[in-house]
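Study this protein:
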Amino acid sequence: MPAARVATLNAVMLRKLAVMAAVMFAFGFALVPFYKSICELTGVNRIVKADAAETGASAVDATRTVTIEFDASPRADWSFRPVRHSLDAHPGELVTIEYEITNHAARDIVGQAIPSYAPVQAAAHLRKLECFCFRQQLLRAGETRRFPVVFVIDRALPREVATVTLSYTFFEIPGGSLAAVGGARSGATTARAGDGA
């Protein structure tokens, strides 16, 4: 093959590769608003990024103390409870607590936790970094698991709010897919049913 022909083919191939690279780069940027829309629809955008600017973790307000109470309500054949029922924390301080769930049924169950807050305005000031409520959870028959909840009380919480209650209701998902949540078991510790806390 003549050298001129090879050079022409190489130039055409280079142009095609450059166009492909540009299209892939533009496609990557186009995905950002798409993912943002999906996150807004599914509620995933409530997950707070663990950087100091957003969480305020680097700016703890040591002049204030907020009492945080924890509550749990099961809606299936299991027991569900916070390992600790209350604690005091400063706004901006990183807090980690655990909830324990035991499946008393003789079958595997898929469930989902739904949070609620009191007073209602506290919901906008409690920023969760990690929570088992972000996804459905699989509990095997007779299994006990502990799930961490990591959050920060925003420093913008009104000063008159001295107590915040974080409550979860844990529902069974009828027809929940065991396969869909079977691999998403990170962040929880497992124990035999009946192990004490």
Q: What stands out?
A: Confidence is low (pLDDT under 50) at residues 47-57, 182-186, 191-197. The longest strand covers residues 143-153. The radius of gyration is 24 Å.
